[in-house]
Amino acid sequence: MKVAAEVCPKCEGTGWRPVTNGTDRRVTRCDCRLQERSQTLLAAARIPKRYEHCELSEFDTHFHPSLGPALLAATKFVEEYPLEKTGLMFVGSLGVGKTHLAVGVVKALILKKGIPCLFVDYRELLKQIQNSYNDSVQVTELELLRPVFETDVLVLDELGVMKPTEWVWDTVSLILNARFNDNRTTVITTNFDDEPAAGVVRSISPARAAARSETLGDRITERMRSRLHEMCRVVKMDGEDFRQKFRSASFR
Question: For the CA atoms of 55, 231, 177, 181, what is the dihedral angle to 10 degrees?
Answer without folding.
Answer: 110
